[in-house]
Amino acid sequence: MNKKDIESRRTFAIISHPDAGKTTMTEKLLYFGGAIRDAGTVKGKKTGKFATSDWMEIEKQRGISVTSSVMQFDYDGKRVNILDTPGHEDFSEDTYRTLMAVDAAVMMVDSAKGIEPQTIKLFQVCRMRGIPIFTFMNKMDRQGLEPLELMENLEEVLEIESYAMNWPIGMGKEFAGVIDRYNNRIERARAEENERFIALNEDGEPEVHDAFMDTSYYEQAMEDVMLLNEAGNEFDPERVAKGELTPVFFGSALANFGVQTFLETFLQFAPPPQPRELKSEEMKDPMDDDFSGFIFKIQANMDPRHRDRIAFVRIVSGQFERGMSVHVPRLNKNIKLAQTTQFLADDRETVDTALPGDIIGLYDTGNFQIGDTIIGGKGNYEFAPLPQFTPELFVKVSAKNVMKSKQFHKGIMQLVQEGAIQYYKTLYTEEVMLGAVGQLQFEVFEHRMRNEYNVEVQMQPIGSKVTRWIENEEDVTEAMTGPRSMLVKDRYDNLVFLFENEFALRWFNDKYPDIRLYGLL
Ligand code: GDP
């Protein structure tokens, strides 16, 4: 195993609110990596190119596919793994868990909108992990918020410090390019390749004059940069690595402006595969010889004729080789990994070897659970568990046919254990409730109950809630509960409040300051 090969790997996810430009950015990156010939291919998959695929119906309808959930390419001597974080209706706990498997994140921001809700949630998961976050302020070819305003918005909403790697000159129709602070040059928009860059001298003055430099927005940009030089944060790679400082790049994914510079700088500062914490609190080092990895996602096949599933493994250490036997400590069982798959942009391919930072897919007939450790060498250790995420959506669920109640409970328990959905129940009547972070999880649940357990379920939506666990359960009284502060139990019989909304939570906090509430991530 070659140390350099491991060090050259960069595994990251792009986080954003829907429509900020994640897909467009991904396409451009794949294009630079030579993984696709035409930018536009990734989107194409959404329009049904997958008709021949035997993947699940929902998958086809929604255009999610295993192939696009992990993409790999080479650039500049680096092996790049991009993990997709499905958003919108496809948002689920898997989206969060994917962030457990990366070493860095790229945050796409729509410059006309600033930081949006879904970005905040995903950012918080990255923050909790302390991974570096690189910001791309997208759509500079459109009129958006003023750049200083965007930086302020970023720092305020996310409570992170920022460093502008470049600064836009104009915006929308007047967008002339950026002052590239990091590389000491101007990068011009709409310029021929050989005229794209204008070097800056020691005083920060351009060495070549161009018409756009006579405009007021150029003057403004130069002024802003001076202000940033004097009063802004310093660029500090160590703070970037800890996730305390986010480098900010202005550009346009659609116009393909600033993407390549971004990619190159990102690959330079994004970390190689990182060590990972074990249950014992020791760290597992990527350079260790013995193979280890953990499962962060399981994708069930929704086609009833195909029961197989794919378990996604992030490799932490050692080398994976096809056909190798691994130990699964939770099951205390050895399993031979014969059928594996690697992810490329254009197709699924059988993988023979893979290294730390890589993601492999294991065909699974029901052995694995999310969070499972798999190890190749001797020893018997497990990785620290993946966090549980605070659900926001709830339904009451029951079997349509009461005669199927045994199958119903068996199915639920298995799907809950697998990590597909969260289990709750009402207090006295013990009606079964399910919690999720995204609607998709309920749909997948319903589908799998029908196809794998032969049970039709009926679900009664309870809507979105603010979920809080309770430190001092013994102090909770009946009087504190009501329609706006419903009390339920989780699968471990812990009491949980489901508040109508943030307002109801605040009201409760004011009224019962002695009850100590907390959310999971
Ligand atoms: P996603 O939902 O985050 O994957 O966003 P998409 O990549 O699908 O982009 C959403 C919309 O914004 C599409 O219509 C894109 O063409 C458009 N878009 C993406 N990047 C840019 C950009 O840099 N400038 C402009 N004007 N539009 C963009």
Automatic annotation (TrEMBL):
<dbReference type="InterPro" id="IPR032090">
    <property type="entry name" value="RF3_C"/>
</dbReference>
<protein>
    <recommendedName>
        <fullName>Peptide chain release factor 3</fullName>
    </recommendedName>
</protein>
<keyword id="KW-0342">GTP-binding</keyword>
<dbReference type="InterPro" id="IPR004548">
    <property type="entry name" value="PrfC"/>
</dbReference>
<dbReference type="Pfam" id="PF00009">
    <property type="entry name" value="GTP_EFTU"/>
</dbReference>
<feature type="binding site">
    <location>
        <begin position="138"/>
        <end position="141"/>
    </location>
    <ligand>
        <name>GTP</name>
    </ligand>
</feature>
<dbReference type="InterPro" id="IPR027417">
    <property type="entry name" value="P-loop_NTPase"/>
</dbReference>
<keyword id="KW-0547">Nucleotide-binding</keyword>
<dbReference type="InterPro" id="IPR000795">
    <property type="entry name" value="T_Tr_GTP-bd_dom"/>
</dbReference>
<keyword id="KW-0963">Cytoplasm</keyword>
<comment type="function">
    <text>Increases the formation of ribosomal termination complexes and stimulates activities of RF-1 and RF-2. It binds guanine nucleotides and has strong preference for UGA stop codons. It may interact directly with the ribosome. The stimulation of RF-1 and RF-2 is significantly reduced by GTP and GDP, but not by GMP.</text>
</comment>
<dbReference type="InterPro" id="IPR038467">
    <property type="entry name" value="RF3_dom_3_sf"/>
</dbReference>
<feature type="binding site">
    <location>
        <begin position="84"/>
        <end position="88"/>
    </location>
    <ligand>
        <name>GTP</name>
    </ligand>
</feature>
<keyword id="KW-0648">Protein biosynthesis</keyword>
<dbReference type="InterPro" id="IPR005225">
    <property type="entry name" value="Small_GTP-bd"/>
</dbReference>
<comment type="similarity">
    <text>Belongs to the TRAFAC class translation factor GTPase superfamily. Classic translation factor GTPase family. PrfC subfamily.</text>
</comment>
<dbReference type="InterPro" id="IPR053905">
    <property type="entry name" value="EF-G-like_DII"/>
</dbReference>
<dbReference type="InterPro" id="IPR035647">
    <property type="entry name" value="EFG_III/V"/>
</dbReference>
<feature type="binding site">
    <location>
        <begin position="16"/>
        <end position="23"/>
    </location>
    <ligand>
        <name>GTP</name>
    </ligand>
</feature>
<dbReference type="InterPro" id="IPR031157">
    <property type="entry name" value="G_TR_CS"/>
</dbReference>
<dbReference type="Pfam" id="PF22042">
    <property type="entry name" value="EF-G_D2"/>
</dbReference>
<dbReference type="InterPro" id="IPR009000">
    <property type="entry name" value="Transl_B-barrel_sf"/>
</dbReference>
<feature type="domain" description="Tr-type G">
    <location>
        <begin position="7"/>
        <end position="274"/>
    </location>
</feature>
<dbReference type="InterPro" id="IPR041732">
    <property type="entry name" value="RF3_GTP-bd"/>
</dbReference>
<dbReference type="Pfam" id="PF16658">
    <property type="entry name" value="RF3_C"/>
</dbReference>
